[in-house]
Write a structure and sequence with these properties.
The mean pLDDT is about 85. Strand 5 and strand 6 form a beta hairpin. The chain is built from two helices and seven strands. Helix 1 packs across helix 2. The protein has a five-stranded antiparallel beta sheet with strand order 6-5-4-1-7, with no helix packed on it. A two-stranded antiparallel ribbon has the order 2-3. It has about 120 residues and is an alpha+beta fold.
């Protein structure tokens, strides 16, 4: 699906959006839910989320290991493998969410949602 500014979209699933707080001390006074089927207009497309320093370092070290690991002394290769293994959780998390496109949508009811994941939208 290609999202562009000005494109009409529909929410594909129910979406719960946190708690509303009021008073001293802050007390929960409600919860906002948008129902599947509401329509709106894309105001801005954010594109892919940026890579973190850890993700870039993982990519660099993994490429080094893959390309030159077989030529390294055993101790150096083992140290490099340990560094790569230490950064794997950040890489896995990035792969799970990093390549997504997020958008800002103004719904017909007046609500605006920013950084909304494209997977919960369908094109009209």
């Amino acid at each position: 699906m290609t999202l562009e500014e000005g494109r009409r979209v529909r929410l594909a699933e129910d979406l719960g959006i946190g708690e509303a707080l009021a008073g001293e001390p802050a007390a929960v006074v409600g919860f906002l839910a948008l129902g599947a089927g509401i329509e709106g207009t894309v105001e801005r497309v954010h594109g892919e989320l940026p890579e973190s320093d850890e993700v870039r370092e993982y990519q660099r070290l993994k490429a080094l290991l893959d390309d030159y690991g077989h030529t390294m002394p055993v101790a150096s290769r083992e140290r490099l493998e340990a560094e790569v293994a230490e950064l794997e959780p950040q890489w896995a998390a990035y792969r799970g969410r990093g390549r997504r496109v997020t958008v800002r949508v103004r719904w017909d009811n007046g609500f605006v949602l920013d950084e909304l994941h494209q997977d919960v939208l369908t094109l009209l």
